[in-house]
């Protein structure tokens, strides 16, 4: 066919040939009469044509003999191929042969198989072919026939031809080690970069391609991850664009419909990502970064219905206005992706070692954070999500360091600072006292330097951001922070300098209920104590005292007042209570002034209950009872049935492990009471002996305090437990008064 | 792999070179490794690993390493509860008894470090030492020692005292 034009070497002719070959290929593949051509002949024809295309138009001999490939030209050629028609024809041919699909060779299969043939297609060209194919995958979706429902990113929704193309790409990668993951990723990237028609669908396709690649090459998952995250970030960017088109919800006038809207808009965050959905009743959390607000109808179950609605809306209305549902849907989509991805990363973890993927994900996220200043928000959220789900060791410190290093560099230090604080508040890692103490230290140092000592004030023109952050911390982490002397000290100093509530809050960044919450905690901790000041500002006018002593709030904040904290930490206070309101100190009774250990160091109380329990486990029960007088926390441990008293009981009296009481009611037994009763009963008979000198004993069964004055009686009695143990299981419960009788 | 070195970095940034086997007594270090190992086995097989310990000061870390090193030669016998004796020397080997004869702040720091680095035998030993400190102290002495306030209401206080009287 086209061979006769092969001999000439001039550039012009080569170009002509290109077009000719492409035309040939295209017409060959779309030829309506190909049914008549025997398949073998057809295949060889395709091979010939393709080899011509490759040799003639995509390679240019260079000086050192290495063939360089013109991507553009090959792309051009392949673009001329009418894929849609080929596929339609193939499908048409497939239909009557459903039963023998496997053996049937269709034009598309022929094309693909001939592409695999190394004699036809020089291996060096595979790269460029893959790139072109990827391009096709990404952009050439001619209507519904290619991707039926492109809003979903599952491969199931793909048309067979697209699936085949992807299979082909994957197969190529398996056959040819030179086509490594790095290169493929870079091709996908360059494909996306070169095109300016990147839209949500393209991104979704890209996401599903990457997902497929990760599934096929679990060991190379790490290489594909950055791209995957990038794609998700792009989706986020689109989301943000959509979101910015929405009318802003102002703080002052939260009408009913607006509340609803803001809930939806805030539905895109970490909490959603890990499947939490807090109820919308807590309006106070509205503007919190990591907290999700979904109303009952917008949970994941109803996603399917939502999608239908959206699709309908799209087809019905010609003008594609952005709806809130769309945003909710898109965010849910992204959520699903990441969730699925995390799940698959667990699969990877099982093959390549626990945590390896998560660890490297972190590295990737950090690299991205460094290289892409624009997308911090979403990346930090991803990191936070990972932190919550996977918790790689010491990762939170890296994340915090990263955030921290940006506070001074970033254009918007306030945002960084708020992020830092949000992370401290929301991440469960900081429920651990040590972690929180370590993480909060730089913040305290900075605030001290900037605000109290007024260094580098140009960077931080107003102190409000920092004060606001401190107020948030106080509200949500107050219980722990109040035991941190530096925090108390700083707060006390600040409260002297900034006496007005207005200075402590960033107006218009938080919702009204949140603002109230912050104010309450500030006031309860004694940072400013005079009520009328607040009332003057009109902040508290409409809420009469009821919120102040809200019974549902934990009393911890109140007991952790600045005054108490300073007193117990033993710091000489630079702060004097501005009024003598007894409420200020009523939260706690410091029975006597303390003479603290001035040497400092770590107070044992900064460590968790577990450590304290460990210490207590070495103490006798008398000491534990005695220690209950020392303080609340020690009392709690001294009252802990399961963790303190059960081991004591077991250690001292021993238990029969097969005792049905242990399995049936193990959690409800009052081990302390059991212990004390048995202990007293033993005390009574401790000097009693029978005539042979045998010490009197109690029945060893839990809760049975019968006393036995001879070995035979004890044996006889215990045999009754064996026979009736099952029937009496319930009657022998602890709450029944133990019978005391001398047998 | 046997003679590999791990770098432990204290709060101040001081770095201690510790044999891998010794450092592995800390579950924190161990976890860090087991994650790293599978992941970069091609690249940095030979690289010396560094583990930051931002909660542990240099003197404390030094003491912890001392403990872990000695543990390799003479394993500490597990402490049996209920305790058979009230003195350290009768509960653990002499070296370990002497190891925790330090001032109170150091002891508390050691507890914190053992907890953070997750070294169970060291945590046991230091907690035992703390529990021995507690013995025989009055409530007020204990509050001072641990730098805490009572926070108990008079009723709670009375109740606790009553129960204590029962136990006496």
Automatic annotation (TrEMBL), chain A:
The cross-references to PROSITE patterns, in alphabetical order and at most eight, read: FBOX (PS50181)
In residue numbers, the region (Disordered) covers 716-743
The record, for Pfam families, names: F-box
F-box domain spans which residues?
601-648
> Which SUPFAM superfamilies has this protein been placed in?
F-box domain
Record's InterPro entries? Answer: F-box-like_dom_sf, F-box_dom
Kindly provide the name given to this protein in its UniProt entry: F-box domain-containing protein
Higher taxonomy: Eukaryota, Sar, Stramenopiles, Ochrophyta, Bacillariophyta
From TrEMBL, chain B:
Report any one BP term from Gene Ontology: ubiquitin-dependent protein catabolic process
Q: List the InterPro entries hit by this protein, alphabetically.
A: SKP1, SKP1-like, SKP1-like_dim_sf, SKP1/BTB/POZ_sf, Skp1_comp_dimer, Skp1_comp_POZ
Q: Which UniProt keywords apply?
A: Ubl conjugation pathway
* Location of the SKP1 component dimerisation domain: 120-167
| CDD domains noted in UniProt | BTB_POZ_SKP1
Give the transmembrane region(s): none
Pathway stated in the Swiss-Prot or TrEMBL entry: Protein modification; protein ubiquitination
Start and end residues of each SKP1 component POZ domain = 5-72
Family membership noted in the UniProt record: Belongs to the SKP1 family.
Quote the protein name from its UniProt record: S-phase kinase-associated protein 1
